[in-house]
Amino acid sequence: MLQETIDRSYKIFAKYKPARPLDVCTNCCMTLEEESMLATLLLKDITPDQLAKYNDSAKPAKTSIDEVKYFLPRYFDLIGQFRFPSHSAELSFSRLIPFDKSEWTVQELELLKQFSTDFFNYCLTVYPIPAFNERIDSILIMLWSGGFDISNLLNHWQNDTGKESILHFRDLYRHGFNQNNPTKLSNSFGDKELADLLRHWIQQVDVKNVFAEAIEKLILEEVQLEETDGYELNLLYEQLKA
Hints:
By secondary structure, the chain is mainly alpha-helical. The chain has 11 helices and no strands.
């Protein structure tokens, strides 16, 4: 499903070409040769390091929309492999800021939503996330910062009670918030609005009941768990049932 969406993105955005020079700093962040290579390489041949250098370089407040759309399929492709094009996963979609819906077609907006849904659902089946030692809160912050609908993703999460999804929920519930100030995320990239949204979600009675039942089933079925995971899931079960 995710790969199909990525493949479709290459087709939908194929008509866009970036103007030259690219919206990137060539005084100190990239050389003119690197800018030229990035603009002329086949999109699928752009490496994670090349895209990260482009993504993390000094840039205008708003990148040209055609340039964003041109590179977006490669972003999707690499992110879908957990090869985040940035020094921090949370900043991977920084070129989408500001995310102005009026500049996208209906088909493009549907594709954006589909990618975020497919990618997040895929993340829920993989534990741990095999890059940067990232937790699920990093993924949520990345998508939130890119303007994606987090509430929609949380609805999907509530319907996924597989082992990996439960472990991600454990991470968010027990480690995702600042111990000294639980109204803030422990991840410094997270803002208050997202923290409020996530805290409200994990405190909903139906959400707590769904994951409490899933944890109980996991334990009763004696699914093999790391010692720390088993210990923390037992603690989390007591918290959810309190």
